[in-house]
């Protein structure tokens, strides 16, 4: 199963409760989790939205290593595989989602920068 690309830090904290992780403290935008199952283990989760895919992959790797289970099992337990109704989005009533062409169109409109106004550049002093 692929890792979700739109997972926030708070969603990851909620999902890790399955493995016995509980919020110990928070400093700024970082949440510290602790699990006492199979010995004490600490994780630091960034409270960003979304969490970068490499960071999420590292967190899942740490959990898999601590509990001595395959990464795929951790991913399926945290984010679930396809349900009987199809994907998680379809089960929640959202439908299959936009097609690739629609996604591209949305991205282009979001990423456009505002037009620059005309002005004269400042001259360098000698």
Describe this protein's structure.
- The protein is an alpha+beta fold.
- The chain has two domains: 1-80, Metal Transport, Frataxin, Chain A (2-Layer Sandwich); 82-111, no CATH class.
- Helices cover 38% and strands 14% of the residues.
- It is built from five helices and three strands; from the N terminus they run H-E-E-E-H-H-H-H.
- It has helices at 9-16, 53-67, 71-79, 88-91, 100-111, and strands spanning 22-27, 30-35, 41-46.
- A three-stranded antiparallel β-sheet has the order 1-2-3.
- A hairpin with a 5-residue loop joins strand 2 (30-35) and strand 3.
- Helix 2 crosses helix 3 (71-79).
- It is elongated, with a radius of gyration of 21 Å.
- Mean pLDDT is 78; it is low at 89-94.
List the helices and strands and how they pair.
Elements: H1 9-16, E1 22-27, E2 30-35, E3 41-46, H2 53-67, H3 71-79, H4 88-91, H5 100-111
Antiparallel strand pairs: 1-2, 2-3
- The sequence of SSEs as H and E is HEEEHHHH
Shape: elongated
Binned, the helix content reads: 25-40%
Overall domain count: 2
Mean pLDDT across every amino acid position? 78
The CATH topology annotation of the largest domain reads as Metal Transport, Frataxin, Chain A
Tally of helical runs: 5
Unreliable stretches covering 5 or more consecutive residues: 89-94
């Amino acid at each position: 199963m692929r890792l979700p690309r739109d997972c926030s830090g708070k969603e990851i904290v909620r999902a890790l409760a399955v493995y016995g992780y509980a919020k110990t403290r928070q400093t700024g935008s970082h949440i510290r989790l602790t699990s006492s199952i199979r010995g004490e283990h600490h994780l630091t989760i960034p409270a960003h939205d979304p969490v970068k895919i490499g960071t999420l992959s590292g967190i899942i790797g740490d959990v898999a290593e601590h509990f001595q289970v395959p990464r795929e099992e951790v991913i399926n337990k945290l984010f679930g595989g396809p349900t009987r109704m199809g994907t998680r989005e379809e089960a929640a009533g959202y439908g299959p989602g936009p097609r690739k062409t629609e996604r591209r169109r949305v991205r282009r409109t979001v990423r456009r920068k505002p037009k620059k106004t005309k002005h004269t550049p400042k001259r360098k002093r000698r």
